[in-house]
Design goal:
By secondary structure, the chain is an alpha+beta fold. The protein is built from 22 helices and 23 strands. The strands form six sheets. It has an eight-stranded antiparallel sheet with strand order 3-4-2-14-20-17-19-18. Strands 5, 6, 7, 8, 11 and 12 form a six-stranded antiparallel sheet that branches. A three-stranded antiparallel sheet has the order 9-10-13. Helix 8 (349-378) packs antiparallel against helix 20 (690-722), helix 9 runs antiparallel to helix 17 (593-621) and helix 20 (690-722) packs antiparallel against helix 21 (725-761). The longest helix has 54 residues, at 289-342. Forms a complex with SecD. Part of the essential Sec protein translocation apparatus which comprises SecA, SecYEG and auxiliary proteins SecDF. Other proteins may also be involved. One of its GO terms (molecular function) is protein-transporting ATPase activity.
């Protein structure tokens, strides 16, 4: 006679579950309330690739007297900030990056030449007495001559006459301010008035007083004002100025053939002060406002349609639970947006793609829970939807945590080692992964357990979507295939695919983008479509025979060359305009050769660290055997993805690097889920053959792999079809990566783990005939088999 469970214990457990549900509900409400408040009060800052503008990366250079260290770079940032403020740019951003780099973002600025000229000039202002005309022209002395004894130099004046200058009497440190003014009274046109500090005022009177002692018309009666080793003004001291008295009052006026813009720019440079060290432009990107608007629209449509298709898919598969997971996905979107705003992250175009991709990854956690709940409910004699869900969340937690941590490793590497928009992708992906865990483990659980406890749902368990095991699992369990009977055949097949794809690297070579090679890439939108061959010939005639010309987007033209000056870039633009009529520059990117080499090195470091980090984590979390198998499969995926892009001639650039590291994080998810199930089965059936346990784990996790893969494919297909052209290759890389990663986790990582295990133990895989092992002839039941019908379910003990 069975002893019934005491009512008090049952009521106690019920109260505990109710209390836990209430706590989770309060946490979910608090998170959502905070997300709504942040979303309404703190807008997300858009990157330049979404709102248009210019980004310039400057690198400080050491001189003989000053080292370009962190302190000098910080002083440079302050000087540059003053210049940018004077330019009147709305919402500029200027930050130090590393020891000696400064990143400047200028929204809305479409003329990078002007911005680079203003920011890149050292603006070293000096005032010199003129010793007389030079015997040798200045160009014979390379523009200037200095002697160690007295600091004299030779520079050409405004008319080209070479002058011998005395050592500087005043510097920019003596300047109090400068202002551009139009001198209508004297007819001098635009002038720049310079005000000196007290000490500078005395020295200005001294230098002009000395010059006034020389006869009118003599070069020695002039005072030279030099900016960055160029005489910008060398006026004669007015005859009214007395010898020895000089010009008092603490100010002077610089005259010349200035127009409005030139006078204001000169005043800006003088007032802003000199840079403590010279700077060099190593990266420059300009995105047209139109291109940014199109990118936002395309990305938004991709997000909406991809999310809708994914939601429809999980609702069809999981019914009520799928609908609740869709609500949780919407909450995930709000949480991610609020988190981006709260941390002050910049949303870039790759970041927008990361946001969309994380939706597919958020589905993964829900699918894991629902599939485990299906197994739990099918394995119980008196199934309860709520108890099955509780067990599903508990059983799936370790797999969810492990798979998300591996993706966070990839996101962290992108953040610390990448630059520009790709770093923004890493930030968005990391935030998306954390938000997906909150969405699945808190919000979905609250909604699902609340719905499962309703009497209407309890009476109709089929509407929950987890009362049956699903068609994929039913088909697998009916056929019960032994996929791992000959693991070496799967490894041989993987090797063949690896060799075919990888040979593209040797045969076709890699088409590195300008991020890794250095150079300049300009994209034009023309009134009439231009044939790339004609444009290539025109540019060759213009002096650019090595320019790479390609069509892009809807009739746009992309020109990629070695590093160009702004003057040479204007020549390229003119050549394109002669073929296409009215021409608009929608994108302009300049990468210095030193930065390209550095980015290539960082890419290899990031790739190596990603594989090493995954191996270390999996070895600690599971066993070294599983970690080695998973990393072997990851290396297989990386070579295939790079090889396919080599065969297709697609660019290997920063966006591809983001896709590659994402594939590493995403691909290892399948391996983690599979190895987590193998570890669980090993704990129950330690004496069962390893290949049989692995095969059972594959069959039990394959429904999750299929459903998760479908969710990711729907999202990525939306990106590939609807998103901006620059994200098409990104989406293609991820689609290839998802397909190859799904295959490798089952047919590369699993057979490799079996072979490594057999090598360690010295055993050979068992071969099944009629459900029996050749070694023992006994029927084998490794692990807990999931019944395919309610009749079987009632026979489980």
């Amino acid at each position: 006679m069975k002893r019934s469970r005491p009512p008090s214990r049952s009521r106690s457990r019920s109260r505990t579950r109710s209390r836990s549900l209430n706590v989770r509900a309060l946490v979910a409400l608090a998170v959502m309330a905070g997300a709504v408040a942040i979303a309404l009060t703190m807008p997300v800052r858009l990157g330049l690739d979404l709102r248009g503008g210019t980004q310039i990366v400057l690198e400080t250079k050491s001189t003989e007297t000053t080292k370009a260290d962190r302190e000098a770079t910080d002083r440079t940032v302050e000087v540059l900030r003053g210049r940018i403020d004077a330019l009147g740019v709305a919402e500029p951003t200027i930050v130090r990056s590393g020891e000696n780099r400064v990143v400047v973002e200028l929204p809305g600025v479409q003329d990078p030449k002007k911005a680079a000229d203003v920011l890149g000039r050292t603006a070293q202002l000096t005032v010199h007495s003129v010793l007389g005309a030079a015997e040798k022209p200045a160009d014979a002395t390379e523009g200037r001559t200095e002697t160690a004894e007295d600091g004299e130099r030779v520079l050409p004046d405004e008319s080209g006459q070479s002058l011998r200058l005395k050592a500087a009497t005043l510097t920019g440190q003596d300047v109090k301010g400068a202002d551009a003014r139009f001198d209508q009274q004297n007819g001098a046109g635009w002038t720049v008035t310079v005000d000196f500090k007290d000490s500078g005022s005395d020295r200005w009177a001294q230098v002009t007083g000395e010059a006034a002692c020389n006869p009118a018309g003599d070069p020695t009666r002039r005072v030279a004002i030099v900016l960055d080793d160029k005489i910008i003004s060398s006026p004669q001291v007015d005859p009214s100025v007395s010898c020895g008295a000089g010009i008092t009052g603490g100010s002077t006026q610089i005259t010349g053939s200035f127009d409005d813009a030139e006078a204001r720019e000169l005043a800006l440079l003088i007032k802003g002060g000199a840079l403590p060290v010279p700077v060099e432009t190593i990266e420059q990107r300009t995105i047209g406002a139109t291109l940014g608007d199109e990118a936002i629209d395309a990305g938004a449509w991709a997000a909406v349609i991809g999310t809708a298709l994914t939601a429809l898919f999980i609702i069809v598969v999981y019914r009520l639970m799928g609908a609740l997971a869709t609500v949780a996905l919407l909450c995930y979107g709000l949480i991610s947006y609020a988190a981006l705003a709260a941390v002050g992250a910049t949303l870039t175009l790759p970041g927008l793609a990361g946001f969309v991709l994380a939706i597919g990854m958020a589905v993964d956690a829900n699918v894991l829970v629902f599939e485990r709940a299906r197994e739990e409910q099918a394995a119980r004699t008196r199934p309860s939807t709520r108890s099955a869900l509780t067990a599903g969340f508990r059983s799936a937690f370790s797999a969810i945590a492990d798979s998300n941590i591996t993706t966070l490793i990839a996101a962290a590497l992108l953040f610390f080692l990448a630059s520009g928009p790709v770093k923004g992708f890493g930030v968005t992906l990391g935030i998306g992964v954390l938000a997906s865990m909150v969405s699945a483990l808190v919000i979905t659980r609250v909604l699902a357990e609340f719905a499962a406890s309703r009497p209407a749902v309890f009476r109709r368990p089929r509407i929950t979507g987890i009362s049956s095991t699903g068609p994929v699992r039913d088909a697998l369990l009916r056929r019960d295939p032994f996929l791992m009977r000959r693991p070496r055949r799967w490894l041989a097949a993987s090797l063949i695919v690896l060799v075919v794809a990888g040979s593209g690297i040797l045969v076709r070579g890699l088409n590195f983008g300008i991020e890794f090679t250095g150079g300049r890439l300009i994209e034009y939108s023309t009134a009439t479509q231009v044939d790339p061959d004609r444009a290539r010939d025109a540019l060759a005639d213009a002096g650019f025979p090595r320019a790479v010309v390609q069509s892009s987007g809807d009739g746009d033209l992309t020109v990629r060359t070695e590093e160009l000056s702004d003057t040479e870039a204007a020549t390229v633009t003119k050549a394109v305009a002669e073929l296409g009529g009215e021409t608009e520059k929608v994108r302009d990117e300049l990468i210095g050769p030193s930065l390209g080499e550095e980015l290539r090195r960082d890419a290899l470091i990031a790739l190596g660290l990603a594989l090493a980090a995954q191996l270390a984590y999996l070895a600690v979390r599971f066993r070294l055997l599983f970690g080695t198998a998973a990393v072997g499969a990851l290396a297989h995926d990386v070579v295939i993805l790079v090889g396919v892009f080599a065969w297709l001639g697609k660019p290997i650039d920063g966006v591809f690097l983001a896709a590659l590291l994402t594939v590493i994080g995403y691909s290892v998810n399948d391996s983690v889920v599979l190895f987590d199930r193998i570890r669980e089965l090993l704990g129950k059936e330690r004496k069962a053959p390893f290949d049989r346990l692995t095969n059972d784990a594959i069959l039990q996790t394959l429904p999750r792999t299929v459903n998760t893969g479908m969710g990711a494919v729907l999202i990525l297909a939306s990106l590939a079809i609807l998103a901006d052209d620059s994200l098409t290759d990104f989406a293609l890389a991820l689609l290839i990566g998802v397909g190859v990663g799904t295959y490798s986790s089952v047919f590369t990582a699993s057979p490799l783990a079996i072979e490594l295990h057999n090598r360690d133990t010295g055993s050979r895989p068992g071969r099944r005939r009629g459900g029996r092992t050749r070694a023992t002839g006994k029927s084998e039941k490794p692990g807990k088999q999931v019944p395919t019908s309610r009749t079987e379910r009632q026979e489980v003990r």
